[in-house]
Amino acid sequence: MKMRNPPVNSLSLEFLTELLISLEKLENDKTFRGIIITSDCPGIFSAGLDLLEMYGRDPAHCAEYWKAVQELWLRVYLSNLVVIGAINGISPAGGCLLSLSCDYRVLANNPKYAIGLNETLLGIIAPFWFKDVLVNTIGHRAAERALQLGFLFPPSDALQVGIVDQVVPEDQVQSTARSVMAQWLAIPDHARQLTKNLVRKPTADRLLQQRDADIQNFVRFISRDSIQKSLHVYLEKLKQKKG
Ligand SMILES: CCCCCC/C=C/CC(=O)SCCNC(=O)CCNC(=O)[C@H](O)C(C)(C)COP(=O)(O)OP(=O)(O)OC[C@H]1O[C@@H](n2cnc3c(N)ncnc32)[C@H](O)[C@@H]1OP(=O)(O)O
Fold it and tell me: pLDDT, tens digit, for every residue of 110-142?
């Protein structure tokens, strides 16, 4: 599955909806046993959640958006398919969450690429379920530092901390993802799927038990003047970077 939402594969409501529809089709088609998620935007896996869906929007829109973000996470995280991330570009925040929700992550060894939950750098807070997935992946202490400091790990650090499973030359990302897929598909589906569910369900359940409260919490938080100001400053910085 090649994500194509130029210029930066930001996860807009429209794009999230497209991804959800595609994933549902694949999940329901019993001829598919696995998917490799990668990007069609050069140098960018995904710039994460679309800031324009959270900036200057009314509460109803923010609620609809957040529900779609939750839905995508639950669908990828609990997918019965083998999900491999072929991360061929920078992958901050929501892009990192998407990567962390895969069963295995292969990152291209390019010093321009980085991956991490950088929310604090924007003046916002990673929700508890983003945090849970990071803690599950890299451990409590490493997650504590990474989250507070908004670390974006370059490839060698990403491998060292365990936020990705493998770092390979850029031209080998897709072939490596395919070899990894073959290895995972060698396991009987039912055994692998039940085991995945056993490991992941408690984390997903934490959100499933309080989805509405999580939406309300998001809407309250994102609507605050101070948070809207932080988003404005960050968006302006992105614009100014262009010169
Ligand atoms: C309890 C409450 C919890 C709230 C939790 C909310 C959680 C949020 C999680 C997130 O995912 S927030 C998003 C975090 N993402 C980022 O910080 C990445 C920002 N983008 C970049 O750093 C760069 O754009 C890039 C990805 C490194 C690419 O750089 P490049 O130089 O190639 O392109 P740009 O010129 O910077 O960008 C092109 C174009 O795209 C716009 N844009 C970039 N990122 C986003 C985004 N995430 N959302 C919306 N739009 C984005 C950028 O502004 C440019 O737009 P323009 O109109 O062409 O100027």
Answer: 999 999 999 999 999 999 999 999 999 999 999
Q: How far is the CA of 36 from the centre of ligand 1 (A)?
A: 23
Q: What is the pLDDT of residues 62-95, one digit of tens each?
A: 999 999 999 999 999 999 999 999 999 999 999 9
Q: Which residues contact 193 (CB under 8 A, 6 or more apart)?
A: 80
Q: Which helix (H) or strand (E) holds 146?
A: helix 140-149
Closest Cα to atom 34 of ligand 1: 238
CA separation (Å) from 86 to 22, 36, 102, 155, 217? 18, 6, 10, 13, 32
Query: Which residue has the least CA distance to atom 7 on ligand 1?
Result: 126
For ligand 1, atom 30, which residue shows the shortest CA distance? 8
* Whole-Å CA distances, 177 to 17, 81, 130, 180, 238: 25, 14, 24, 5, 32
Q: How far is the CA of 72 from the centre of ligand 1 (A)?
A: 19
Whether ligand 1 lies within 6 angstroms of the CB of 94 is answered as yes
Predicted confidence band at 222 (pLDDT cuts at 50, 70, 90)?
A: very high
Active site residue 139: no
pLDDT of res. 243: 65
Counted domains in the chain: 1
**Does residue 47 have its Cβ closer than 6 Å to ligand 1?**
yes
Strands 115-116 and 89-92: what pairing? parallel
State which residues form the domain around 84.
Answer: 1-239
ipTM: 0.98
What's the CATH code of the domain at 99? 3.90.226.10
